[in-house]
Design brief:
Length: 301
Amino acid sequence: MTTSNGLREFLTSRRAQIDPATVGLPPSPVQRRGRGLRREEVAALAGVSVDYYARLEQGRIGNISDQVLTAIEDALRLDPLERQHLRSLVGNPTAQQRRSTPVGRPKVRVGLRTFVEAIDPVPALLQGPRMEILAWNRAATILLTDFGAMPARDRNVARWLFLDSSNRVRYPDWEEVAAPTVAALRAARNPGRPDEALEKLVGELSVASEEFARYWATYRLFKHGHGTKRIFHPTVGVMSLNYETFDIPDSGGQFLSTYTADVGSPAAEKLSILMSWGNSPDETTPVEPDSVQSEAEHREP
């Protein structure tokens, strides 16, 4: 069973990204009406009939063999994350994709909350599968913002990034941060398992932010791993910081993000000054009491 609208949107967006010349196709004698590959060109590259591929884009194909699916993935030059997403769209998800997204605001294990606090002065944020900000430490408050002062509803990285104008200053390369954030939300959306909270978030941000809507329409997929971000703080200026993202096992899709600087770098000196400057003991409320998951709850089957 396929989700036809999502499948059509995804396949159309992927073939639109491919320059025909890069796959060895000669210049077309007929002027192209749009970017990228035509349906018949994808079909030829995948070794399937044009009618078959057209019906696939329309969601009118039943079971698809792994061989054919792989050929289409290769023709469209999909990366591993995109291949996983396509298989969920055509109803052939992996075991990881079959896991349901928790309903409501995820709970945080006591030990995980303690860990986030304990690694201070390394700034750390714990996020849920929809980028809910679930826990943070003093260092994250100093570096980024006072998440404890936000209404709980607003504690979401995507909502904060697009609706708080101060982030245009906080992140000098704002677009390079914003686009992957939307792509990561796209990747978190399981087509086979509707998520009302995620759909509501996407709908609200699409109306409130033209940029969010534009990024969402590109259908890019992304999974946070590691990299570098430039962050501005009025006390010390711009710092180039390394971020690392860690998936938390048995947490319903929670992940931890940390920020560090290269040893001996100007950014390391600035970050050290900043952490020393903001050394107030009770600046944050790292996690809401009703969102804490007890050890007993965690041990339930």
